[in-house]
Write a structure and sequence with these properties.
single chain, 5 helices
């Protein structure tokens, strides 16, 4: 957060689909709407260690690898997502896990023939994931939790 004044929240998780996908070494492709939130540019990958980020130097390296992106794969570990607030960072993590799961499913069926080019992916990002829609998705998750209480 010190490296990015635009970041008000960070999420770190070990979501199984993201760990498995990162281990394949394949780049995330915009084969789903969810993936367009992350690519282009290529999804950042941190490979210096798969262990815990226990030192200030490793933390700086993670921030440098993330750069100005909204997510980072900690290969053999998990993911980091960022946003201006908790709802955005959480929904970014949820959508990254979903994008990884979709691509893993496609890969298990033999791969995919096409994906959105950069212009189409950026266009989808613009109208599928503006801040207000991410906030609505967060509100839906909160309502689901409230309904279970």
């Amino acid at each position: 957060m010190a490296a990015r004044p635009d970041v008000g929240s960070v999420v770190h998780t070990h979501a199984a689909d993201t760990v498995a996908f990162a281990a394949t070494g394949h780049p995330l492709r915009p084969i789903s709407h969810e993936a367009t939130l992350f690519v282009p540019p290529a999804l950042a990958r941190f490979t210096r260690t798969g262990d815990l980020i226990l030192t200030t130097d490793l933390g700086r390296d993670v921030a440098a690898a993330l750069a100005d992106r909204n997510a980072l794969m900690l290969v053999n570990h998990g993911i980091v997502t960022v946003g201006p607030d908790v709802p955005t960072a959480v929904m970014t993590a949820v959508l990254l896990a979903r994008a990884c799961r979709i691509q893993l499913t496609a890969m298990s069926a033999g791969g995919w023939a096409t994906w959105s080019d950069d212009a189409e992916a950026l266009s989808k990002r613009g109208h599928c994931y503006p801040a207000e829609l991410l906030a609505q998705a967060w509100a839906f998750l909160v309502r689901q939790l409230d309904a279970r209480s």
